[in-house]
Design the sequence.
């Protein structure tokens, strides 16, 4: 997770503070530069994508597009790399919610599972204990399936989840 910030345009200078504040990991100037260079050497496709985003800039405005063609304008490089990813994640989440609800209805489980929160790429359900394993499996499978459909199978989609008695126990 630490190095994922480079995907969204974080500079080596910002990375020094980010690594320290978020992960308690210290980098000096050269270490941060080396980490960023190593990341882009390993992930050449992301490096090409960043170069394309930079090339799209006209007069300080970046033009980007979601996976389904939604055009967006950004005024910072970090936003131009973030917007298409967030738009794609939003599509996956919306499709997930439809697939999950449809299956809960089909299996007569909707009355046991209350959707109580949606945040970015997470969903929280309150579920009757006796049905929690079954609903958990439905949620995870359908979130993964939505990702597979939206991304046209181009990338693996891994879904993580937890069954807990209290929200404070969730990781």
Sequence:
């Amino acid at each position: 997770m630490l190095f994922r910030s480079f995907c969204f345009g974080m500079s080596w200078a910002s990375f020094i503070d980010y690594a320290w504040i978020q992960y308690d990991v210290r980098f000096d100037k050269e270490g941060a530069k080396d980490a960023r260079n190593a990341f882009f050497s390993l992930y050449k496709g992301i490096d090409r994508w960043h170069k394309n985003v930079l090339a799209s800039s006209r007069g300080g405005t970046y033009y980007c597009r979601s996976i389904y063609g939604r055009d967006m304008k950004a005024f910072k490089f970090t936003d131009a790399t973030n917007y298409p990813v967030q738009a794609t994640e939003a599509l996956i989440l919306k499709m997930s919610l439809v697939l999950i609800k449809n299956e809960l209805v089909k299996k007569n489980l909707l009355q046991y599972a209350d959707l109580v929160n949606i945040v970015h790429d997470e969903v929280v359900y309150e579920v009757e204990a006796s049905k929690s394993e079954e609903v958990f499996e439905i949620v995870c499978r359908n979130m993964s399936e939505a990702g597979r459909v939206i991304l046209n199978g181009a990338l693996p989609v891994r879904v993580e989840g937890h069954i807990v008695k209290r929200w404070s126990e969730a990781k």
